[in-house]
Amino acid sequence: MDLDLSHPTLPDLRARARRRIPHFAWEYLDSGTGEDSAIRRSREALDNVVLAPAVLKGRTEPDLTTTLLGRTYDRPWGVSPVGMTGLFWPGAEVTLAQHCVSQNLPFGLSTVAAASVEDLAPHIGEQGWFQLYPPRDMDHCKDLLARAKAAGFHTLVLTVDVPGPSRRERQRRGGLTTPPAITPRLFMQSVLRPHWSLAVARAGVPSVRGLAKYTSPHTPARHVGLAPHAAPDPELFKVLRDLWEGPIVAKGVLVPEEAVMLRDLGFDAIWVSNHGGRQFDGAPGSADALPRVRKALGPDFPVIFDGAVTSGLDMLRAIALGADFIMLGRPWLWGVASFGAKGAAHVSHILTEDMTSGLIQMGITTPPEVRSRLWPTSSSG
Ligand SMILES: Cc1cc2nc3c(=O)[nH]c(=O)nc-3n(C[C@H](O)[C@H](O)[C@H](O)COP(=O)(O)O)c2cc1C
Question: The domain spanning residue 73 has which CATH number?
Fold first, then answer.
């Protein structure tokens, strides 16, 4: 199958993934919280960004290499941390880490991924960012950080937008319980997805392997998307700052004043995100918040962005609004669930081709130059 013809966009991969993943797991991947309004706002905010094409510039030779936090990546994008990644396709963490190594992109491993830092160690190379939900027990927290470091992860991502659980109504209706239990309903849904079921039968039922060491019948990792953890506060951050040698990123920031506070506390980068719309349905779209956060932080402080990005053009839109680097969550799983490692490669291929084409249409060479092509609209200020 020529994927360029059959699946030329990320939404094409999404449609295929939906047909291959059981309903309960699909609902876990695809949903936000509440009415999914925050997801919609993220999407609309990107759609509303207009960029100016250029004429008589000749054909440019785009260069997508981007330096962030002292490292140069081949493209300005990477993999956002996604909990229980292996639920969507067994082995997805390793598949994506290997893709990131082959393409020199950063790979974010969630604290509550199915694979542990040790599972990733042989595959992660120099590409590892470790996303932390801090365990409540400080000894466990220290141990987890030491394990991540020993496994080769160099950048710590502290998710700051989960002070408590959200309701995730679609996920509940989908039938996924906490802890996950194979009910007759889930079993029937799985039977309808034989490729997935076979893959799971080979790999084993996914669990949060990275936290297994700290859990017991009395303290299970209760929520598939939210293991027991302390909500980060400035005091906890200071402790983590001392514990972690290397860059620390604050993930899940939307409010400009909070971005400034986090920068002043010592974070090395701010990650603008509404957590894929999964935490607070009243939140602005990520791209609504982005220009305000950029303005508050000034032009030079590193800003990472995610939220509803489904094309190279979307990434250029986000960069035009002030992002330095773009991460994607769900689209990588669409690729892997659709076509395994080939699907991950196809995601990067689509993004590369689309971003390159966009740069050529605007007569520019590097992604940051897109800031000069922002077409003024009511939503771009
Ligand atoms: C199924 C799922 C699980 C997620 N788990 C985590 C997580 O464990 N830690 C975290 O910081 N963010 C998590 N996120 C949020 C992503 O890192 C990212 O912010 C979001 O997916 C970006 O939006 P996109 O999926 O539209 O690209 C999760 C998102 C999804 C869809």
Answer: 3.20.20.70
Mutate to test the pocket of ligand 1, among 41, 278, 333 (most ligand atoms within 8 A of CB): 278
Contacts of 231 (CB under 8 A, 6+ apart): 162, 163, 164
Establish whether residue 171 lines the binding site of ligand 1, counting it when its CB lies within 6 angstroms of any ligand atom.
no
Q: Hey, which residues does 71 pair with through a beta bridge?
A: 68
Q: Looking at ligand 1, which atom is closest to the CA of residue 112?
A: 8
Q: Residue whose CA is closest, atom 4 of ligand 1?
A: 82
Q: Which long-range contacts (CB under 8 A, 24 or more apart) does 1-4 make?
A: 3/339, 3/342, 3/346, 3/349, 4/349
Q: Which residues of the chain have pLDDT under 50?
A: 223-226, 381
Give pLDDT tens digits for 239-298: 999 999 999 999 999 999 999 999 999 999 999 999 999 999 999 999 999 999 999 999
- Position 177 scores a pLDDT of 74
Number of compact structural domains in the chain: 1
User: How many angstroms is it from 257 CA to the middle of ligand 1?
Assistant: 23
Answer whether 85 contacts ligand 1 (Cβ < 6 A). Answer: no
Tell me if 330 CB under 6 Å of ligand 1.
Answer: yes
Question: Atom of ligand 1 at shortest distance to CA of 113?
Answer: 8
User: Residue 227 in contact with residue 208, Cβ under 8 Å?
Assistant: yes
Separation between Cα atoms, residue 363 and residue 356, nearest integer Å: 11
User: Does 373 fall in a domain?
Assistant: no
Full residue range of the structural domain in which residue 94 is found: 3-367
Q: Is the CB of 247 under 6 A from ligand 1?
A: no
Global pTM exceeds 0.90: yes
Residues annotated catalytic, as ranges? 275
